[in-house]
Design brief:
The complex is a heterodimer. Chain A is of the alpha+beta class. Chain A has helices at residues 23-38, 59-77, and strands spanning 3-5, 14-20, 48-55, 79-89, 94-103, 117-118, 126-128, 131-139. Chain A has a single domain, classed as Archease, Possible Chaperone, Chain: A, domain 1 (3-Layer(bab) Sandwich), CATH 3.55.10.10. Chain A has two helices and eight strands; from the N terminus they run ββαβαβββββ. In chain A, strands 1, 2, 6, 7 and 8 form a five-stranded antiparallel beta sheet that branches. Chain A has a three-stranded antiparallel beta sheet with strand order 3-5-4, with helices on one face. The two termini of chain A are 22 Å apart. Chain B is an alpha+beta fold. Chain B has a single domain (8-413, 455-484), classed as tRNA-splicing ligase RtcB, CATH 3.90.1860.10. In chain B, strands 7, 8, 9, 11, 15, 16, 18 and 19 form an eight-stranded mixed beta sheet that branches. A seven-stranded mixed beta sheet of chain B has the order 1-2-3-4-5-13-12, with helices on both faces. A two-stranded antiparallel ribbon of chain B has the order 6-10. The chains are: A alpha+beta, B alpha+beta. At the A-B interface, helix 2 and strand 6 of A face helix 7, helix 9, helix 12 and helix 14 of B.
Chain lengths: 140, 485
């Protein structure tokens, strides 16, 4: 699995490391990690699609905003997503993303923790050799 | 944590880290902890509290209370006061869950009345108070009313038949903090909040049916002031905050503050300590938005209380008034407030950040609501769902020593991931039932993460604060029913 939970980093909350061989993959991995914290992804159906376009002042911010957008859609539209296609462009930087998932169905979904915010603690996108990495601490 | 030679003992429950501990500290750090709590405190607390001591305009000390544990930027259980003209305001010093807090409601029921109906009662409350991932609230208001709701808090509820007449005066700040401005709150925050009124949330948030526990502690004279007159009287405790609304306010302003610090020449040791002068436009904007979120949280807890009163009424076939279901008090434990304090021989206004810390104003303080002014502000300290909680009162010593502040809860010692490795939710639920605590949880994973072993000993925390003299014990409370978000 390209993300790994960090049991000793956030006592009251949840932290994970993510990595990928592409920046697009890193964003997709972080999105999947957030989903995994909130629901067993195996119980999700891909019946709804949402498109996202974001622009930020740097790559850190773009990833922060992207993850925050997923949390907002969970609260406002009751949507959880299990599949992501992200294209990050260096101009801006910006991204175009497609998220597939469905509305929360309590009787069918194995729900877990409610993610409420992305923190700045230990946060930052790193590009080392052929690998893109980040650490994310989420407020639960 | 191994003994740190930099930490000097001040009393049996107070410790100090001098300004020389790290470059840039403007004030020393002060920790309240028994030796046992200090030895088990995670090392992140020391780093974080001394980072807070480096923030511009901090006065006197950066504090960590007995329940302190690792947080973002500030430790949880952290207190810091800043000069209102030269000092900063920090969203990370308030926390993501603005005005996360505790409510305590009394009943005139006794344990024997509730014991046979505890399952029915907990199941009904679980249905009436939405909890868990992405739930929608029990009460919907049009978005156009959000300005009034977040400006007036429980006062707005009272004007709309959503609160009893005496509820507002039993809430910190009379149920609303002045200075709200909804125009400083983002569209995203309003959208997240508008559908979440009356929701419990998840994580460490809970709603608990409790019984006064004289075997652990009960000051009967003091307890009478709160309407606690029976040794096995049944109470209800609620722990939750401002839901997505407050979290979004914090996220939005962390972003603004991080970008803005350079312009003010401010450097911090941790991105979550992002801060700006309180007197700056951005500082004032955040304060106005934070106050909206704080008032949102008061309303959220009020609507939950209404549901709890309904549930008791339906189960016990009596009106809530006949069950004496009055609010004892509602405290904020994640907030920044402008308060007047006397320190270093001077009386001055300061901006007190309490992040996982409770106001503990002493007797006679004009900011304590009238019903409690002669005894001090009620302090509600919630423990883990297995170990019980406490009601305390504020003291004059707290005014002198900690800007009128004390602890807020047990404080975690084990991460959520580690707790889940130690115990399964279903097993914990069964064991708690064997011990007389009926638990209903939104998820079994969430239940396991909140096991008692993941927390410090609540009694040790409370004893420490009592011995330090910065809050005084009134009553211990033990759980008999729990709803876990």
């Amino acid at each position: 699995m390209p993300f790994r939970f960090l049991p000793d980093v956030a006592l009251a909350d949840i932290a994970f490391d993510a990595e990928s061989d592409s920046v697009d993959g890193l964003f997709e991995t972080c999105a999947l990690a957030i989903t995994d914290i909130m629901v067993d992804p195996k119980t999700l159906r891909m019946t709804t699609e949402r498109k996202l376009s974001l622009r930020s002042e740097n790559l850190d911010r773009l990833l922060y905003d992207f993850m925050t957008e997923l949390i907002v859609m969970k609260d406002v539209d009751s949507l959880l997503f299990g599949r992501f296609k992200v294209r990050v462009r260096p101009e801006g930087p910006s991204l175009e993303a497609v998220a597939e998932g469905e509305q929360i169905a309590r009787e069918r979904h194995h729900l877990r923790n409610d993610v409420k915010a992305v923190t700045m603690h230990l946060f930052g996108v790193k590009h080392e050799g052929n690998t893109w990495r980040t650490t994310v601490v989420l407020d639960i | 944590m191994p003994a740190n030679p930099a930490i000097k003992q001040v009393s049996d429950v107070a410790w100090e880290i001098p300004q020389s501990y790290k470059p840039g500290m403007h004030v020393p750090a002060r920790l309240y902890a028994s030796k046992k709590l200090l030895d088990n405190m995670d090392s992140g607390v020391i780093e974080q509290v001394t980072n807070v001591a480096c923030l511009p305009g901090i006065v006197r000390y950066a504090y960590a209370m007995a329940d302190a544990h690792w947080g973002y930027g500030f430790p949880i259980g952290g207190v810091a006061a800043f000069d209102t003209e030269k000092g900063i305001i920090s969203p990370g010093g308030v926390g993501f869950d603005v005005n996360c807090g505790m409510r305590l409601i009394r009943t005139n029921l006794r344990f024997a009345d509730v014991k046979p109906k505890i399952k029915e009662l907990v199941d009904l409350i679980f249905n009436l108070v939405p909890a868990g991932v992405g739930v929608k609230g029990s009460q919907n208001f049009p978005q156009s009313q959000m300005g009034d709701i977040t400006a007036l808090g429980v006062k707005w509820c009272a004007e709309h038949d959503l609160a009893w007449e005496d509820d507002p005066q039993h809430v910190e700040e009379g149920g609303f903090i002045k200075g709200a401005d909804i125009s400083k709150v983002s569209r995203q925050a309003i959208s997240r909040g508008v559908s979440q009124f009356g929701t419990l949330g998840s994580g460490n948030h809970y709603l608990e049916i409790q019984v006064v526990d004289p075997d652990r502690y009960l000051d009967r004279d003091l307890a009478k002031e709160f309407g606690i007159v029976q040794d096995d009287q049944v109470m209800v405790m609620i722990h939750c905050g401002s839901r997505g609304f407050g979290h979004q306010v914090c996220s939005d302003y962390l972003r603004t503050f991080e970008s803005g610090m350079k312009g003010f020449g401010i450097e911090v040791r941790d991105r979550d300590l992002a801060c700006l002068p309180f007197s700056s436009k951005e500082g004032q904007d955040y304060y106005a938005a934070m106050v909206c979120a704080a008032n949102f949280a008061f309303v959220n807890r009020q609507i939950i209380v209404n549901q709890v009163r309904q549930a008791f009424s339906r189960v016990f076939h009596r009106e809530p008034e006949a069950l004496d279901m009055h609010l004892i008090y509602d405290v904020c434990h994640n907030v920044a407030k402008v308060e007047t304090h006397t320190y270093d021989g001077t009386k001055a206004k300061v901006l007190v950040h309490r992040k996982g810390a409770t106001r503990s104003f002493g007797p006679g303080n004009p900011d304590v609501p009238a019903p409690y002014r002669k005894i001090g502000q009620p302090v509600i300290i919630g423990g883990s769902m297995e170990t019980g909680s406490y009601l305390l009162v504020g003291t004059q010593k707290a005014m002198e020593a900690t800007f009128g502040s004390t602890a807020h809860g047990s404080g975690r010692t084990m991460s959520r991931t580690a707790a889940k490795r130690e115990v399964r939710g279903a097993e914990l639920q069964r064991k708690m039932l064997d011990r007389g605590i009926y638990v209903k949880a939104a998820t079994m994973d969430g239940l396991a993460e909140e096991a008692g072993m993941a927390y410090k000993d609540i009694s040790e925390v409370v004893e420490t604060m009592d011995r330090a003299g910065i809050s005084k014990k009134v009553a211990a409370l033990r759980p008999i029913g729990n709803i876990k978000g």
